Amino acid sequence: MNTTNIAIVIPAHNEALTISKCLASVQTAIEQLPSTITATVLVVLDSCSDDTLTLVKHAGVDYLCCDYRCVGQVRDFGIRHAIASGATWLACTDADSLVTADWLTQQITHINHQPTAMICGVVSVDDWAHLTPQTRKDYIAHYQDKMGHRHIHGANLSFSSAAYLAVGGFAALPCHEDVDLVKKFEKQNFAITWSNRVRVITSSRLQARAAEGFAAFLANLETSHSQ
To answer: What CATH code is carried by the domain that includes residue 185?
Structure first.
């Protein structure tokens, strides 16, 4: 598989508090890649009214602006732009997340050692301090941090451009667009690697950008313990 041109695509809706650290972590991951691989970053700013754009410009990465207010549509917009610009492998994360230094090199290792059209990675929570101990306990009991897990996170999802186009890409869904895409890959029998070596640290905030996203999942756990 041709992985010589990687695009990291990041949707952002009013993420001024986190986008700079996110982009710094992505840059560190890019710096670990061999010189034979090119990697670019594309931030897709969706309906931003804060300083996200200013910070993205300061970081010197490519960006697009849109007003979809729909994460599936935003991801697809950015990914198709990246593919049109020559990307052969797409790596998705979120603006409130930090990728590990080996995030991209681990992806390359998987691609080089086994048939892989998509990689579903895992996430770790950045801070439990504002959550109840029971929420953390329940989360850890639920989460399978191992190879062969079956968790799906838009904040840690990567795939080949050819396979993405073949399945029709992300649907214009306000949430669960990541789950929908994985199902499309499965339906067309594309090889998926479920890896806990490809890791992202994500925000434990409870104010969800997507109605049924990761923040909403944590918020529901927290609420269930206060009732």
So the answer is: 3.90.550.10
Rounded to the nearest 10°, the torsion over CA 106, 111, 112, 115 is 140
Q: HEC states along 23-49?
A: HHHHHHHHHCCCCCCEEEEEEEEECCC
Least confident window among 9-18, 139-148, 175-184, 207-216: 207-216
User: Where does the chain have alpha helices with state H?
Assistant: 19-31, 52-59, 71-84, 103-113, 133-142, 161-167, 177-187, 214-226
Nearest-angstrom CA–CA distance, 202 and 151: 14
Q: Which two tokens stand for residue 55?
A: 């910070």
Pairing of strands 89-92, 62-66: unpaired
Identify whether the C-beta of residue 166 lies closer than 8 Å to the C-beta of residue 144. Answer: no
Q: At what angle do helices 214-226 and 133-142 cross, to 10 degrees?
A: 130
Residue 212 CA: distances (Å) to CA of 169, 181, 219: 20, 16, 10
* Counted domains in the chain: 1
- CA–CA distance, 204 with 128 (Å, rounded to integer): 7
Does residue 21 have a pLDDT over 90? Answer: yes
200 backbone dihedrals φ, ψ, rounded to 5°: -135, 140
Question: Domain containing 133: what range?
Answer: 5-226
Q: Which two tokens stand for residue 155?
A: 């904040």
The model's pTM is 0.90
Which pLDDT belongs to residue 4?
84
